[in-house]
Records
---
Amino acid sequence: MTRHTRLIMQMVYWAFVLYLFIPLSLMVLMGFKDSKFIGFPIKSLTLHWYKVVIQDLELMSVFAYSFTIAISSTVLAIIIGTWAAMLLSQAKFKGKIIVFALITLPAVLPGIISAIALRIYSQTLGIEPGMTAVILGHTVHNVPFVTLVGMARLNSQPMSHVEAAQDLGADNVISFFRITLPYLTPALVGAGIFCMLTSFDDFVRSFFLGGYEPTLPVYIFSQLRTGMSPEINAISSVVLVITAVMGLAAERLMRRK
Amino acid sequence: MKNATVSLVDISKKYGSFVAVEKINLTIQPGDFVTLLGPSGCGKSTTLRILGGFETPTTGQVFLGDDDVTNIPPNRRNVNMVFQDYALFPHMTCGRNIAFGLELKGKTKAETEARVDELLEFMQLTGFKDRKPEELSGGQRQRVALARALAPDPSVLLLDEPLGALDAKLRKQVQIELKSIQKRTGKTFIFVTHDQEEALTMSDRVLVMNKGRIEQAGSPKDLYSHPESRFVAEFIGETNMLECGVKGIDGKQVVLDWFGTELRGDCRKGSPTPGQKVGAVIRPENITCYSNKPESSLAFELNIDQRIFKGSSTTFEARSSKGQSLTITLDSIRADEIGTEKMWVVLKPEYLSILLN
């Protein structure tokens, strides 16, 4: 690479970084603005909007609601996804490829399509729009991710570990819980954090499957319709920090050998 | 647990049309160090895995003492295995690894701890109890794997090329260690390797395998001195393989023609007939050398091509008048008496084995 092309590459890179971070920085900055209107010029900075956020009981209950949904759908997705990963990477049966395709399909379906499908289906099942429907919707969306990460991890587990456990007297259940599950744990924790973030962030499924109680993205959306205030920026900044930390942690855990 | 006789009766294992193991019959006496030796793909590992219960034979039966264990899964078989990659559980400490089999056998906590400590001391691993496997050296990991397999007191210990991952120097040391551990525990060890030197160093009995069959079984000395097939002769140690024709039988000795030179040797297996093409085998160190023509009807002259000094021994690459090459090894002190261009040799009949196949 000549000096010339390297310089151009570096410029492209920094342009991309700016493109990515200017909107985020503006959003965070506006959350500290001492005025009701979002936009320049900024006369002085304040923590007022963060106080408003903390004291907003409705907002806190929305947070809790979103959080409950994220945790529940993640736990379900991990249980089902791990089971599917074990089945797909170890058992031999006819139509395995079809099972694999069906389990991973929700990951590639457009959100709006699966949201409408789930809405219709849950009503035929008699599940009213609300928390249960949202949790199940998020679970379906998250299972493929856990399955794929779990399968990748299982592939790297030496066959001899399980054989050694059996050799020393473990049956299938004991060798799963004492040998395979601990080996899978870092990958599952990573996948779990990722699932929580996806669930927390999801708008389309939550909007279609939710009842009167909104999840956080749905709540923010409804607030936007009645007019923007820096309170939205403060909420968004808090979410940004939490998700960034969790996302980075998940990425690290999944890469660990 | 008392040692038990291990028997394999008519064991075969097929994968589709591929025959991994064919009609193996084998009895292993309690307390023996037995090695299955052969090149990769000869069926030695499959045989070991059948003993461990990881493979079910297509035909035949496996006996442990008087019990038929052919269809007993590994977790209910009183046999333990040391794996090639050791298969130590990475999330457990050494102590927990060794305790694993004991816990599953329902031993009390106190019994388990006592046994773990005893084994750690036995393997000179005291102080490593709370370390994770990744913090240990290759040799230490190997000892932990051995301790873990010995902990439940199996009647037979299976070892699947456990020295493969060690470097050459450590390997030699561990070979001696392993042999002494086997002696001190008095356990039956069944060891799999492709390394002939390893097999000769440690075993009471070696089974040479080729293409799913046992080619020859015997003590290391027996196999080395009296190979019964070309495969065994060439697989174990260095050898001279002379292509001869049978001239006749003289009492117990077979008279051979090796490109015009008369040789005599023993045939321990089969009966050669005059005119038959056979292989005659002699080890490089068993060839008797002279600087001048000796008093023997079997003596003949060789031209020396190369002389390779190897410290305590010297190897000669030499050629007969008909251009047939021989490798000869001598003590370096004896080698000094030999000239630079020519030497006389005698292939003594007791060192020459005749192979029909």
Note: Residues 303 and 342 of chain B are 5 Å apart (CA to CA).
---
Amino acid sequence: MVSQRPDPTLPPPDPARRPNPGLPRADVVVDASGFLCPMPIVKLAQAVKSVAVGQIVEVVATDPGILADAPAWAQMTRQDIIGAWSEGDRHHFWFRKLHE
Amino acid sequence: MVAPSPSATSIPAVPTPPDPPAAAGPLPEPAQADLRPVKDGVTIVVFSGDFDRVQAAFNIAVGAASSGLPVTMFFTFWGLDVITRPNASRVGRDPLRTAFRWLKPGGAGRLPLTRFNFLGLGPVLMRRLMGQFRMPAVDQMVELAHSLGVRFIACTITMGVMGLTEADLLPIVDAYAGVATYLADARGSDVNLFI
């Protein structure tokens, strides 16, 4: 498990508080909270690179640009977004790695 | 006397060219195979040495490299400041170039802002603000881009003009080259920027 938590002022994301139990379970969680463009995408790409095909990467970001950038990144890299959820200004996306 | 109308003024009749000789046959068909390279990549000419412009160039480069695209950054003119060692020699090979090196020592940590530079105070404030927002500054972006596989090309012509040698540039430079190398890369790219 890779967990990067760079900003101690923000509370950590709490899995128990997720209102939707149907959201995917990630193999790797990348917390890019507090980072601005392009760092969430950089960290997401590094995490997806590090996992095996079929595994799930969750990225958490507070930069609202991620709402557009996550689908754009998935389209460019031909990876799959399998879930999205926003809690206030904290945005979660789940990606399934389809290929290297 | 009536002034000649504009249409009557003196544009000599263009002689009709003789008919071209009858073509020996149909024009040759273009080659069937499309030999152009697959366009999938990003080429960025970094001409400016301004902090804010260079920051934008690196944001795009790093984003593209993280999206799996091959990225080439071609540094020329003031853009060479970005990849100049902070402690590069200020001695050129003649007095003029030495003066140039003293006036413009270069280095990614010394870039001025396009606006609100205020004799160097602007970039200090900008760096502090960007730090608060956890944005990597240009010198960190250079390292990040290099680690993501961005190809750095330094323009040899402007290096010569500005009195820079290979020893004055950061060791991350992949190639020292000219316009043909840039064009070869740009022809294989579908995103091509001049910043």
Note: The first strand of chain B starts at residue 42 and ends at 46.
